[in-house]
# Entry
Amino acid sequence: MPLQTLLISDLVPSEPCLERPVVDMNLTILQRGEALPPPTVVIIDSNYYVSDGCHRVMASKEFGSDSLVCNVKGHHEAKPSVSDFNTDMCREAIRKGRKGFNNIKFVATNQEKLDCYDEDDDSLGDALQNISDN
# Structure
């Protein structure tokens, strides 16, 4: 995947909530002067949707970074069912004001994270089921 430097303000998270301990762990790594692996983003409707690495992006934002080197892949590289799911989730995240990693809820555990998804969008479970069926 090609690497590209992108502004954090242009990134759209794939998750409505993030586990605070994981963000803090990544923030500690940055504070020690170490690098984090680049997140993976998918280009959807001219937006950069973070498909892997949301916790790393948030840690970088909290660290004060304005931009990140990201692995960038085209929307066409995913299976059609995943591609459609990503498109819907990206548009929903933008609609809810999350572009730039804003309006993200922090949770302490993975279970709270699952509950957060339920609170955020009742149709998420149906979308996930559609992907697993295909």
About this structure: Confidence is low (pLDDT under 50) at residues 122-134. The CA atoms of residues 29 and 35 lie 7 Å apart.
